[in-house]
Write a structure and sequence with these properties.
The complex is a heterodimer. Chain A is of the alpha/beta class. Chain B is of the alpha+beta class. Chain B is built from six helices and seven strands. The chains are: A alpha/beta, B alpha+beta.
Chain lengths: 192, 166
C-alpha cells in the first residue's frame, strides 16, 4: 500500500525534470512544491498561492539557516546573516534543488529569547532556522555539560508546548509578531 | 480497498514533514524485504538513523502497529530486518545508566517490555500510567499527532549523547 506508492513518488521526483522542494510559510505546515528549473521562484510561488502577483511584503529565503551554531560564545544578542533572495531568479539559479527548502515570511528575523537558570540569552534568528538549531545554540550559550545537554529541550514560555526539532521558527510565529520566548527545560523521564 | 485510517497514514507519509526527514536521512520506510513474512496493515516498518557508536548499527528498524491511526497511538518494538523478526534484546540500543534514553528503551519492568517503548506516545506503555498526562502533557498522543511526531521523538533520542550503542 503506502510504502510502494510513496517510494514511487520519491523515484519520480528524483528522476523527473521538476525540482521538488519544501515550502514553508507563516504559521503553517510545510508543503511540497515542484517547479521546472527554468521557472522563476515568483512564478512558482504565485502558482501555489503563497504570494499574489506583486510581491507584497513577503520575504523569501532559500535553504535552512544554522549560522548561529558558528557564533562564538562571547557574542551576545547576535543576529543571523541569511539574506532574502530575488524571486525573479529561476529555481536553477537559486539552486533550489540543492537547498531543498523555501521559506516565505513577513519577518526578516525572529527575535528569540531563551531562559535558563535565571538568565536569558537572545539572538535574532532567520525564520528558516529549525528548533533543533536553536536548541543546540541555547545548550552551548548556557554552557550545559555535553554529557547531559541532550535532555534539555525548548518549551514555549507560558505553555507546555515543546516544538519538534525539525520545525522552523517561521512556523511558530504569526505576523505581525516576530518574536518567541522559550524556557530551556529538562525533559521528564517516564516513571511509574 | 484501504481503510480511512490507512488513507490517513498514506496522506501523512506523502506530506512534507515526513519527506523532509527522509531527505535528511533521519528516517524512511524499511525496504520491502525487511518486513515479516506476509505482513499487512496495520503492521508498518520504518528505520531511524542513529548516531555513530562503536559496533552499533547506523540505523534501527521498528515494526509499528498503526491500527486506529491517528486517534489511537502507535506501538511496536525494534525490528531485525535481516531475520525479519523482533530485534533480540541484546541488540536493542542502550543508554547511559539513569538516563531518559535508558528508561524509554528499557527491557523490563512494564507489561510491554520488549514489544513496546516505555514512552507516553506508545499505546501499550500509556496504559496504566494515568499520571503521564499531567507529568508530560506535551507527549500525550492526540489526533493532531502524526507518524512524524513519533519518528522525530525516537530518532532524536538515537542521536543524543545518552545513546551509548548496543
Amino acid at each position: 500500500m503506502t510504502m510502494e506508492k510513496v517510494a514511487a513518488d520519491d523515484l519520480a521526483a528524483r528522476h523527473g525534470g521538476d525540482h521538488e522542494f519544501f515550502l514553508h510559510a507563516n504559521g503553517a505546515e510545510p508543503k511540497i512544491g515542484k517547479g521546472a528549473p527554468h521557472e522563476t521562484l515568483r512564478e512558482v510561488l504565485i502558482r501555489v498561492g503563497i504570494i499574489e502577483d506583486g510581491r507584497g511584503n513577503t520575504l523569501v529565503f532559500v535553504g535552512e539557516c544554522d549560522v548561529a551554531l558558528r557564533e562564538s560564545d562571547e557574542i551576545e544578542d547576535g543576529i543571523d546573516k541569511h539574506e532574502p533572495v530575488d524571486i525573479s531568479l529561476t529555481l536553477e539559479v537559486l539552486e533550489v534543488h540543492r537547498h531543498r527548502h523555501v521559506h516565505c515570511h513577513t519577518c526578516r528575523h525572529i527575535a528569540v529569547e531563551v531562559n535558563f537558570g535565571g538568565k536569558t540569552k537572545r539572538h535574532r534568528f532567520s525564520p528558516a532556522t529549525t528548533v533543533g538549531v536553536v536548541t543546540e545554540w541555547a545548550r552551548r550559550k548556557f554552557k550545559l555539560d555535553p554529557e547531559s545537554a541532550s535532555e534539555y529541550v525548548l518549551q514555549i514560555c507560558g505553555t507546555t508546548t515543546q516544538p519538534r526539532s525539525d520545525e522552523h521558527l517561521g512556523k511558530l510565529v504569526d505576523a505581525p509578531v516576530c518574536s518567541l520566548c522559550f524556557n530551556l527545560v529538562k525533559e521528564v523521564s517516564p516513571q511509574g | 480497498m484501504s481503510s480511512p485510517e490507512q488513507r490517513l497514514v498514506e496522506s501523512d507519509l506523502q506530506g512534507a514533514p515526513f519527506r523532509i526527514g527522509v531527505t535528511k536521512g533521519r528516517w524512511g520506510f524499511a525496504e520491502p524485504g525487511a518486513a515479516a513474512e506476509g505482513a499487512a496493515w496495520p503492521r508498518t516498518y520504518f528505520w531511524m538513523a542513529a548516531a555513530t557508536r562503536q559496533n552499533a548499527p547506523d540505523r534501527y528498524y521498528v515494526e509499528l502497529d498503526l491500527s486506529g491511526y491517528r486517534s489511537v497511538p502507535p506501538t511496536g518494538p525494534f525490528w531485525d530486518p535481516v531475520k525479519r523478526q523482533r530485534l533480540e534484546h541484546g541488540k536493542w540500543p542502550k543508554g547511559k545508566p539513569g538516563s531518559r534514553f535508558a528508561q524509554v528503551f528499557r527491557l523490563g519492568g512494564f507489561s510491554g517490555a520488549g514489544s513496546a517503548f516505555y514512552h507516553p506516545y506508545d499505546r501499550v506503555a500509556r496504559l496504566n500510567h494515568n499520571q503521564w498526562p499531567s507529568e508530560q502533557p506535551h507527549l500525550i498522543w492526540t489526533e493532531k499527532h502524526t507518524i512524524v511526531d513519533y519518528l522525530e521523538e525516537f530518532q532524536s533520542m538515537l542521536m543524543s549523547g545518552d545513546y551509548v550503542g548496543v
